[in-house]
Amino acid sequence: MSTDDAEKTFTGFFGNLQQAHARIEERLQELEGAADAVTEPARAPKALETMASVLEFFSTFGAQHTEDEEKTLFPRLQPLPDFKLMLAAFDFQHRMVETEQRALAARVQGFTPAGAAGLREQAHRFVEVHRAHILAEERGLFPLAEKHLPRRVLVAMTLELRVLNA
Predict the structure, then answer these.
(1) Whole-model pTM?
(2) Who's near 67: CB < 8 A, 6+ residues apart?
(3) How far does CA 59 lie from the centroid of its chain?
(4) 101 with 107: CB under 8 angstroms?
């Protein structure tokens, strides 16, 4: 994509992040279904397979998405005083999501029927933390960042995001 093409679609940066959020939401829904099924012995094996697949998605695509935000968007916002506390909160949220993901992976890996209810709760907690984070980004951070960042920066971020994900 040329700079001219990026200029025409400069909001593409936030659109790309929101598309990633939509993919993440699909996988969170799968995880919820698996979490609800894992407490039923006949459905537990398939539920565990689904959970493992979802965790693999978050280990790859989810990690790349977080990196995209932290390498393209956050550095541009750090010098702006209005974003100091907000960025600290979003960085904390990223770490919370990662912590919940590790806890969920440990429960999936060490699954026993006696621990099914705890696994279900952990999965739902992961979903809840992740959804809250996405909501805060889409309703708070992204619109505010788009208003504060100059057009040329938005174009540069769009191009960087495409290179990072090529």
Answers:
(1) 0.89
(2) 164
(3) 10
(4) no
Question: The tokens of 27 are what?
Answer: 């996988």
- Cα–Cα distance, 7 to 151 (Å, whole number): 8
Provide the 8-state DSSP code for 40. S
Residues 6+ apart with CB under 8 A from 61: 20, 23, 24
Q: Which fold has domain 3-164?
A: Four Helix Bundle (Hemerythrin (Met), subunit A) (1.20.120)
- pLDDT tens per residue across span 70-119: 999 999 999 999 899 999 999 999 999 999 999 999 999 999 999 999 99
Both tokens of residue 155? 């174009």
Contacts of 7 (CB under 8 A, 6+ apart): 151, 155
